[in-house]
Amino acid sequence: MATNFVKYSQLINNSTKYAQRMKRLSNRIFSEVAIPTNSRSMKVVKIFSARPLHSNEEIIHYYPRHVETHALMLKLREYGLFRDEHQDFKEEMKRLRELRGKVKVWKRKLNQEQKES
């Protein structure tokens, strides 16, 4: 004697109207595509069934940690293990400016010195 599950699976495989309706109902219950569709429509179904992008860790944390990397490079530069040519150039220009006597004086700094004296 066949079990009820076997009878149900045989019923689903039949091509009667009742079997087709039961198959569609089963597909709806288990969140599958109810009516067979073409491959382009299945692509849309696949996209919408995927995990949302705003909750995907790979996309959220895609960019590197610029602030921490910059702080690390500054520390390595202090120790002499990293050479930042742009910063070296800026410091050299500032040193040459001081030698020529063209040091920039900020207004805020001038105001503080006047208040102190």
Automatic annotation (TrEMBL):
Q: Which residues form the signal peptide?
A: none
Localisation = Mitochondrion
Q: Which UniProt keywords apply?
A: Mitochondrion, Ribonucleoprotein, Ribosomal protein
**Is the keyword Ribonucleoprotein in the record?**
yes
- The answer to whether keyword Membrane applies is no
Query: InterPro entries recorded for this chain?
Result: Ribosomal_mS33 (IPR013219)
Highest taxon in the source lineage: Eukaryota
Q: State the GO CC annotations.
A: mitochondrion; ribonucleoprotein complex; ribosome
The similarity comment for this entry is: Belongs to the mitochondrion-specific ribosomal protein mS33 family.
| Protein name, UniProt field | Small ribosomal subunit protein mS33
